[in-house]
Amino acid sequence: MAHVFISYIRENCILVDRLRNDLAEHGIEVWLDRDNIDPGVFWEEAIRKAINEGKFFLACFSDEYNSRHRSYMNEELTLAIEELRKRSSNHSWFIPVLFSGAIPDRPIGAGKTLRSIQRIELNEETWGEGISRLVEGIKAKSHSSKAQIQHLIALISSPVSHFTDIEFALKGLLEYGEGAVEAVPSLVALLGSKDHRIYIKAVEVLRSIGTTARDAVPMLIEQLQNGSICEASVCVSAITKALAAIAPDDKHVIAALIDKLNDPSISNRNSAALALGEIGPSAKVAVSSLIEILHDDIEEVHTAAVIALGKIRASANVVVSTLRHKLAEADFETKREIIITLGRFGPDARDAVPTLLNIFRDIHSPYKDEARYALLQIAPDSLD
Predict the structure, then answer these.
(1) Residue 143 maps to a domain
(2) Residue 92 structural domain
(3) Could you give phi then psi for residue 200, rounded to 5 degrees?
C-alpha cells in the first residue's frame, strides 16, 4: 500500500506518534519527515516528492498549530494545496485531522477553504472512533481501486477499443496516481499513438504515476529531442512536466531539458524552464543556462527562468546578484516573480534587502505585499 503523509508541528509529536502507531497496526505505511529523510538529502525536495506520491495527506491541526505564526507545516500545506488542486474532487486525498481547536480557514481554490473538507477529530473522547473511520477510508479506497485499474488497463490495451473507450480509461487511470503503476507498459505503448489527444493523456497518466514509471523515460526523452510524435507546444509541455515528475534525478532528463531551453519556440522554452524548476535542487547544473536566458531579449521567457531559479535555489550569490540587477528593467510579471524568488533564498539574499525595503516603503508600488513577504523570509528584523 502507498504511504500516508502526515504533516504536523513539533509540539504535537506525542499525538502524531500515537496516530502513526495506530495506523501501522492496521498495515498502513506512514511517512514522517523525521523518520523518512536520509542524511544528506535535500529535505524540501524529499517532502515535495513524498506529498505528491502519497496516497493520502493528513494535516494535523491543533491549538498549538493555530498559535504559531511560522512553521514548516505551513510550507507542507502550500505544497499539498497545490497538489490538491490538480486532483479530482471525487476522490479523497487531503484529510484534515483535528487534535484540538479549529481548522484554519485557508483558501484552497474555487471559493473553498480547508474547512470545506470533511475532517477527522482525534481527541481523548473520539480517538478510537476517529482511527476506525480513518483506517476504513484509507483501506476502502485501496481495495476498490485494484479491480477498476485492471479494467481500465484492459480498455487501453485492447486492439478493438474505440477512441472514446481509450480516452475514458486514461481519464480514469489519471485518478489513481502511483496506484496505476501496473498500467505503465500499456501507457508506454500508447506513446506511439498518432492521435495527439490520446498521446497527451497517456503522458499525463505517466506523470501522475511518478517515479515508478521510469520505463517511459527513454522514449519521452527521444520524443522531446526529435519531436517524432508531436511537435505542438502542448505536447512538449506534457512531456517536460512528465519527465520532471518521473525522473527528477536523471542526468539525461536534466540535460534534455537544458537543451530545450534553446528551442526556437518560446512556449517550449518556457515549458523546459518550468520543468527544471519542478525538479528543484537536483537541476542546479541548469542555473547558468537559466541566467543566460535573463540576459537575452526574449522577455516572454524571463518569468519562467526566474521561477525556476527560485525553486532550484543554487548558486545563491550569483543568482541573487543577477536578479537584483534585473529588477530595474523587468516587465510587471517578471518583476513580481523576482521579488518572490529573492524571498525564497532567505538570508542568502540579504544584499537585496535595501532594494526590497525601497519597494515596500513606496506607497505607490504594486509589489508592496510581495516585498514584505520576501523581507520576512530574508531579514524579518528589517521591518521593525
Answers:
(1) no
(2) 4-123
(3) -65, -40
DSSP secondary-structure letter at 380? G
For residue 251, CA distances in Å to 225, 308, 342 come to 15, 17, 27
Q: What is the largest CA-CA distance in the chain?
A: 70
Nearest to 203 by CA among 184, 227, 182, 226: 184
Q: Is 305 exposed, middle or buried (0-12, 13-18, 19+ CB in 10 A)?
A: buried
Distance CA 151, CA 167 (A): 14
Residue given cell 489513481 in the structure block: 176
Across the chain, how many H-helices and E-strands are there?
Answer: 19, 7
Q: What pLDDT, in 10s, does the model give residues 297-334?
A: 788 899 999 999 999 999 999 999 999 999 988 888 89
**Percentage helix, strand, coil for the chain under 3-state DSSP, each rounded to 5:** 70, 5, 25
Q: Which CATH number does the domain housing residue 73 bear?
A: 3.40.50.10140
Question: Does residue 18 lie in a domain region?
Answer: yes
Classify residue 174: in a domain, yes or no. no
pLDDT tens digit sequence for 267-290: 999 999 999 999 999 999 999 999
> 261 near 269, Cβ under 8 Å?
yes
Spatial CA neighbour of 36 closest among 80, 11, 3, 58: 3
